[in-house]
Each structure stands twice: as C-alpha cells, then as structure tokens.
Fold this sequence. Notes:
- By secondary structure, the chain is of the alpha/beta class.
- 37% of the residues lie in helices and 14% in strands.
- The chain has a 9-stranded parallel beta sheet. A two-stranded antiparallel ribbon has the order 2-6.
- The longest helix has 25 residues, at 206-230.
- The protein starts with 7 loop residues before the first strand and ends with a helix.
- 6-O-phosphono-beta-D-galactopyranose binds at residues 14, 17, 174-175, 241, 314, 333-334, 377, 381, 427, 434-437, 442.
Amino acid sequence: MAFPKSFYWGGATAANQYEGGWNLDGKGESVCDHMRGGNVSTPRQMDEQLDPNALYPSHVATDFYHHYEEDIALFAEMGWNMFRMSINWTRLFPTGEEAEPLAAGVEFYDKVFACCKKHGIEPLVTLSHYETPYALVEKYNAWADRKLIDCFFTYAKFCLDRWHGTVRYWLTFNEVNTGFMDLGCVLSSSLIQGFTGTMAEVHRTPNERLNALHHQFLAGAKIVKYAHEHYPELMMGNMTAFMGSYPLTCDPADVLQNETEMREWSWYASDVQVRGHYPQYAKRYWRENDVQIDLAEGDEELLAAGKVDMFTFSYYMSSTATTHDDGEMMQGNMAMGGKNPYLKASDWGWQIDPIGLRIALNQIADRYDNIPMFVVENGFGAFDEVVVEDGVERVHDPYRTDYLRAHVEQMGEAIEDGVNLLGYTWWGGIDLVSAGTGEYAKRYGFIYVDYHDDGSGDGHRVRKDSFYDYQKIIAEARGE
Ligand code: BGP
C-alpha cells in the first residue's frame, strides 16, 4: 500500500453526538441539546423549550464523558495514532459570553488530552461541531449576528492558548459549507431563534444563509490569523462536507448544472477559506439571489490574513446533477442530489462510491495547489445486531469492513496520484448518535455501545468484527 509511515490513522467524533453529560458540572445547553431523535423517515424535531418527557439523544449520547479512558485505550488497541474530537463550547463557556471558562470543563479536556498522549494518539480538534451555545441562539439568532465572531474568538483563543502545546491540528467549523443550504441552518449556522419544529421545516433566504456564513468565515479567519501570529507550529484547517457529484448525462446543460451545484454546495466555502477571498462566481450568485453581504471595513483583509493551512473534509457518498426531469432524487437524511444507476446505497439512501473519494482528493489537490489534506470523516451507518457466541457478545459487520477497505484502497490510489493526504479519521470509530436523524440505530462504530433509541442500555462497549479488521488494515499499511 502507498501510505507513508507518518500517515495518521484514526476515527472521528463530535461532542454533541458522543460526549453526553449535557448538564453536568455547570455545562450550558448547546443547539443539539434541544433536538429530539428521529429516523430515516421522521425528521428530527427542534424544541425551543425542553420537554421533560421527551428524549434528547445528545444528553447522554454514548457517554464519552464517563468512558474516555476506556475508549481511548480501545482506540490505541486498534492502532490509532489520531483521534478527532470536538470541544463542547458550552462545557467551557455555558452561555457563550462568559469572560472566563468553567474550571471543570477545562479539567475534563486536560484529562482527555493527557490520556491521548499516554496512548501515543494525536488529537485533531474541531472547535465548533454543531455545538453553538443555545443562549446565543436565543439572544442573537446565532450566526445571523456579527457579535458571534467575538464570542467564538474568546472561546477559540482560550482553547489555543491552553492546549497549543498538546494539540497541533485544529479545525474551525464542522461542515461549514452546509450553511449555504437550508440543510445547515439548524446544526451549523443555527438560524433558529424562537423556532420549534422539524429540521425539514427550516427555510432561510439566500441573504440570511450567506451572511451567516460570512460571519463564520470571519470568525474562522480570525482564529487562524491568531494561530499564525502566536503558534506558527499549529496546523489550522477548514472542514467541508464534500458533496461529490457527476453530471447525469453528457448533455452540456447537465455538465454545467453539475458544475454550478459543486460550486454552491462544496466549493463556495473552501474557496474563501483556502484562498482568502470570495471566488469570482460569488458576485453573480449574490446579484441574482438578492444577497447583500454585510462587508464591513477590514473584512476582506481579515479573510486574506486567515487562510487555512490544510483542507479537511467529510466524504460519505456522491450524487448526480441533471436538468432533465426524469432524474430520480436520492432519499434519506442529509442526502442531496440525484441517484446514480451505477451505485448501491446504504439503508439511509447514501450512495456508496469509493472511486468518488479518489476523484474528490484529486479535485481538491488540483484546485488548491496540492494543499495538505485529511479525510476527517468517512463511514458507513448501518443497523448492527449483537449475537452471543460461547458466552461472548459479538457483532458481525462485514458490510462496514467492505466500505472501509474500498475507501482505503482509493485513498492509496490518490496518494499514488501524488495527492498530499496526511491522514484518515473514520467517522465514529465508536457508536454515537447520528447527526441527521438523531438515532442510535444508525451505527458507524468499530466499537458497539449498548444504548438504544428508546432510552434503554447500559452503555457497555463491545468490539465488532470491524474493530479487528481496521486494526489489521492499519498494521498492513504500516508494514507491520
Ligand atoms: C456529518 C457530520 C457528523 C456525522 C456524519 C454522519 O454530516 O459532520 O456529525 O454525524 O455526518 O451523518 P449522520 O450522523 O447523519 O449519519
């Protein structure tokens, strides 16, 4: 295999889906703490007021808060040398506006990073992974307001000042590009002040969406600039949900449609974050969609001064684009775009396309002068079954290993193509709550966690077959 010795292998998580302990030790409420669970056909519901009788999956999630030592030891056993996690903004700054962080929160992450170090695992930390303080939604409608830039900067600056010696790799906003669409207006830009209803009911104008994004670009650039000035050894990255797509036919109109969708869904955000300015096609989009960007004095300079050092992205599936009305749309949570007759899909309608990952890596390398890259999310959500054999609990999940192997193979090809890929963190690694549906049943982990959608389960961990498969793949790649 083509992987260099220095390659990072690991898994990725997010506090809102993994950590739990939602109100312990002074932690404040995040956006996700107000979201109920759903499933593939029932969208998640957002409650302005929490209902004491409802289940909110982020409240316990899969309880990393109380299991971090056990879990990190299991990660090390698989051979990981990287663990992507997010810091829960509200564990440090409960309402997002305190001047000083909560000591208990600081102590928790101190312990987590020390534990990673003990196991030789490099943390890769997302500063904001769908965890905007709910108090900032109530007060400012979150990223609609420029004020959030300062709130975020106070929080992010604290994190860098405290942990720059321990954490080298940092990401600003998870899947920030989803804010271009209604899809990202709940979890990512959180334009949901006073809103109760399902995720599918949130519709914001292009002007609202793109201004919220503008504020996130500025906040990201501000912390990247601060890192470059104070801690030049850090690697600061964007994080894009890469929505790979193909023209459904060779009709030039389909090719153009595909190009347009790729720009809007995937490239718009990273073009700003990597190049430090808005792309040439933005102005026409703004004009034709009634968008007036709140460009204040100094904004353009800040974007130019806060260019990221690495490109990181999630990749799960690909779709198609067409202008013909006979194209069938993909079904399922967070799945956008058209179906591809050459691809199979998961139970949630996500089309499986390993070659698409190689294409994505090459497209990013071509576009951004072979910038260092990480695939920070890629994975297969599936229903798993625990069976007891000779008194031992097991999960046989060859479908997950198949998906993993096929994608690892294509990353190897991309490295052969010359792509500057530094690492891979599989989404989950350990079971956690789904972001799109809020389910436990959509499992991604190599480690099973005994929690269920009806609130039952004791949280004990079980190594799935894929645990040993990933262990083997990593060892093989390292030539061990
Ligand atoms: C990405 C998110 C993750 C994660 C993943 C899988 O969009 O960054 O937080 O959850 O997708 O999606 P889902 O959980 O909906 O299956």
